[in-house]
Input
Amino acid sequence: MCGSFFRRSLRSNVLKQALAAGLACAFLAVCIQIADHFFQIVDREETLINGSVFGGLAGLVSLLIVFRSSNAFSRFWEATSLVDQMTADWLEASSIVIAFCSLSTAETKKVQELKHVVVRLLSLLNAQILGEIEGLDANCDLSADALRFTGPKRAFEFELLDIASLDRHSLSALISCAHGPTLVEHWLQQVIVDSIKNGVLNIPAPLLATIFQKLGSGMNTYHHAIRLVMVPPPFPYTATTRILLTLFMTLTPYVFCCWTSNRIWPAVFSFVFVFIFCALNMTAEELENPFGDRDDDLDLRRSQVVLNSRLRSLLSENSTMVPTLCVTWEKATERMRSKFHGATLHMRFDRTSSEIGATTTSVAWMRLHAHRVVGKSTSAQSSRGEPNNRAGGRGVELPDMEEQPTLHVASIGHSDSTPTGEGSSST
Output
């Protein structure tokens, strides 16, 4: 534990820079003491000797640094929440689509192709977003030519779910596009609308709207993250903090030399004060843009790996299962009332890498069961002659869809539970 802490400390740029500043001030204090010994340059009758004057300066600098650190931590925590919220929206959208596919009357090939295309596009969309916001700052060039070689290039460095199965024409268009997230999100909407038109998704329209709501919520979170990066803290406040900190670093060695004639303690106290103040200020500067590619920033690549693992679990055979009672409902009610069976049952499971998305799969189970009930009620309405509110039965002519990504593999059956080429792929 201690070894890992010290290794990470040695790699931290913040601690390195703060250590350099502290050692420089300590060396300056030693030089002042040596020069005073020969030339008497330290005047201990100056006003700076008064502790209240220097204490006021130190208090003002510490107040500015603490306020900046608090604001930076708030931005860092907000960025963490945005990434988690965006990931949750993609998982929810994919789970809804896969659950709706259980009621599809289309052939198995089309249903399975829809599942695999949606999962791959969601993985690609998340990578495009994370690749675009990683390394951005307020001074970044946001022109189309610059973004064409930053966002997409970084996106293909993330782990992707077998994008090699998507057609080459779509991938080529994505590489040449300056705004990849917008294009991939539009592809997802086109794939879903095309599936509604072809009868693959024959769920009532109000339920289908939840898919587009989740996609819209995820894109809204993405724009919030971009705003967090491109709108830095006010420059006058940052400049004031830096100027006062520089003044404090310059005066500290001289003030401590005025307080004592010892040659060791001025250097020690100068190092401690300057090191702490510089470390706090540089930490705040690092946290103000949490989407960078430094060691102290958010690990966006790990977030992509976790999302891919959960998306992969939605394509497994377990996601098509619907949990049922193994006893009668009377017995289940009796067990709920019993103190023994009502207590918390702790079970020990051997966790494997394939079980990371167990929570996502269980959510898909519940949604699958609920939509089967909805499908039965819809069929009952049709048999009684009641109007059917399915998207395909409205009689509204849908416009021609633009070209969207498709799988170029031969066919996908029920046995294809996981995507081929689960690792990262590049073009």
Remarks:
- Residues 56-234+300-311 form one domain.
